[in-house]
Amino acid sequence: MKILVVEDEPKTGDYLKQGLSEAGFVVDLARDGKDGLHLALSEDYALAILDVMLPGLDGWQILAGLRRAGRDMPVLFLTARDQVEDRVKGLELGADDYLVKPFAFAELLARVRTLLRRGSKASEGDLLSIADLELDLRRRRVTRAGQRIDLTAKEFALLELLMRRQGEVLPRSLIASQVWDMNFDSDTNVIEVAVRRLRAKVDDGFPTRLINTVRGMGYVLDAP
Amino acid sequence: MSLLQPARRPSLSLRLTLFFAAASTAVLLALGYMILRAVDRHFMEQDAALLEGKIALAQHALRSARSVADLAALPQKFDDSLIGHHGLVVAVIAADGSRLFASRDMQVPESLLAPEAALPEAEFEHLAHAGHAANIRTAQLSAWQTSAGNFRGLAVAMHTGVASMAPVTLIVATEISHHTDFLREFRVTLWVFVACAALLTGLLGWLLTRHALLPLQAMRRTAAEVTADNLHFRLPLADVPKELATLAESLNQMLARLEDSFRRLSDFSSDLAHELRTPVSNLMTHTQVALSQTRSAEEYRDVLYSNLEEFERLSSMVSELLFLAKADNGLMVPRHELVRLEDEMRKLFDFYEALAESAQLTLQVEGQGAVPGDGSMLRRALSNLLSNAVRHATPGTAIVVRIDDSDGTHVQLEIENQGETIAPEHLPRLFDRFYRADASRHRSSEGAGLGLAITHAIVVAHGGSLAVTSEDGVTRFTMRLPAPRP
């Protein structure tokens, strides 16, 4: 999948390109607004990541240009400013998401995947599974190797999130926001404790660990 | 000088000076007018008394004349009786208008020659003998001016002793130049006096105003010396008059508040520098050590992970500082939706459940209440208080949240935990940025020390207040938020 990144700050642009490329995307990088809009209109991208403050045209103008030309790919804004008016303006212009610098790369990756998934209808089956772990959404039941596992409501929601996005590293902030609706950084290790307890129920006593900690980034559910 | 001239300001001392001068001038003018009137009346009274006597004499002479021949001898009689009265003139006018007698040089004004101008004899007698002299003065005295001088006189119609003769008009007048001269001089003196008095009171008023405003000048000088470096300056209260004392006190209180805010701000700057220096120096030394020799990929990865942790701490500190900066600049405008506090608390209990259980803490919420506010901000504020309580609670105890909306104006929310008592000297500064009651507490065990400052900022942005008490092992944060308008 092709992603366009428009970012004038050299280091940020480079690491965004490298990080997204290594995550399996094809990335084009533009260093200013005019090149960015030109690229966006001449190529076919699945997603655009735009910095707000850019030389030439700013992020808002690129977005307006895209929408005028009938391009409706999802657009994610990066900004150093976090003003409510900016968010409102972005959303009015048709931006799909908004990340304030500094952000964790895992967070960006998770959001990019969310935006890309939005377009294609995700499988809404009743049963999620990985290796010998099964999660039955309808009956709210979890089994591993045929054994029933009792989970609290929040543990179930956490496991459901990890299973729906298996293989993806989910940052703590995303987990807090998706499972508990807490949209700010907590200065405690709440998520760590919650994941540890879930892991004790899901992984303890089984030869393979499915829930893994990615140091400094977050958690991932993956079969080895 | 600034290009923008300030609008013309009225000068207080000028206005007071003008007011004093105008007021004293008006009072003195009124007084002078009354004195002039009184003197004038007094002179008139004197004249009237004199004229009355002389008229009686003349009347007696006229009545005693039994024939025309007697009348012809009158001038001699009059001259005798009027001698010694300098300036007194007498005229007797017959009914046909001919002068029976007139003092030398006497010019009688036409107005007095008219028959109706003369006071009838009976009336004169009545007034003169019944002590109504005042009536004569005001009603019948007339004044006129001739080449010989100023005169004031009275005309009386009367019958002579000659039975066959028609009534005559007797006119007696006295020269009053010395009176008018005196009055003129008096008037001039009065004017000069009033002018001098006005000037003098104006001057005194100006001096007095200046003197009264001197403390203001002193205050101005002190205020001009106040800069960020010497906010400890206070206006002297000893010599300030009562009226200005409250102003000076208010200004002093303002200075005290500024000094406190400024101290907090500079503390904050140095704390900020310190908070930044530790992770930055960790990052630098760790990276330098790692690069000093070739290492395995595993070791490099370890360094990067360790760096990542520091970066994350820095990043969240920056976000929190930005949040606080927005609050400071009034840019944090909470939305106003109805937030049910007990619901928010239950959601937060869900969030902190795992953490609380691992610390063997129970979480309870009692009561209920709703406030208008920004749900996500309030949740963040409550989350910080709850995480603070969880962090400092003694294992095995309960964290109790009480919500009380019985007071109509405010909803009160208390979060109470049992744990170490916070020393009283720390309590007022607990909401300061980077402030930690326990200076030795290791920073990695918690956030940057901004959580309570953020909570405080959010509560203030909602028009509420936040307080903390800590006694006998119970620490209680009390949040008061305005209740929804009915």
TrEMBL record, chain A:
It comes from Viridibacterium curvum. This is Heavy metal response regulator transcription factor. PANTHER family: REGULATOR OF RPOS (PTHR48111), TRANSCRIPTIONAL REGULATORY PROTEIN CUSR-RELATED (PTHR48111:SF41). The modification 4-aspartylphosphate is found at D51. Residues 125-223 form the OmpR/PhoB-type domain. SUPFAM superfamilies: C-terminal effector domain of the bipartite response regulators, CheY-like. Keywords: DNA-binding, Phosphoprotein, Transcription, Transcription regulation, Two-component regulatory system. Residues 125-223 bind DNA. Residues 2-116 form the Response regulatory domain.
UniProtKB/TrEMBL annotation, chain B:
Keywords: ATP-binding, Cell inner membrane, Cell membrane, Kinase, Membrane, Nucleotide-binding, Phosphoprotein, Transferase, Transmembrane, Transmembrane helix, Two-component regulatory system. It is an enzyme of class 2 (transferase). Its EC number is 2.7.13.3. It holds the Pfam family HisKA. Its main location: membrane. The chain crosses the membrane at residues 12-36, 188-208. Gene3D superfamilies: 1.10.287.130, 6.10.340.10, Histidine kinase-like ATPase, C-terminal domain. GO terms for molecular function: kinase activity. Residues 210-263 form the HAMP domain. It catalyses: ATP + protein L-histidine = ADP + protein N-phospho-L-histidine. CDD domains: HAMP, HATPase, HisKA. The keyword Kinase applies. It is a multi-pass membrane protein. PANTHER family: SENSOR HISTIDINE KINASE CUSS, SENSOR HISTIDINE KINASE YKOH. This is Sensor protein. The lineage of its organism: Bacteria, Pseudomonadati, Pseudomonadota, Betaproteobacteria, Rhodocyclales.
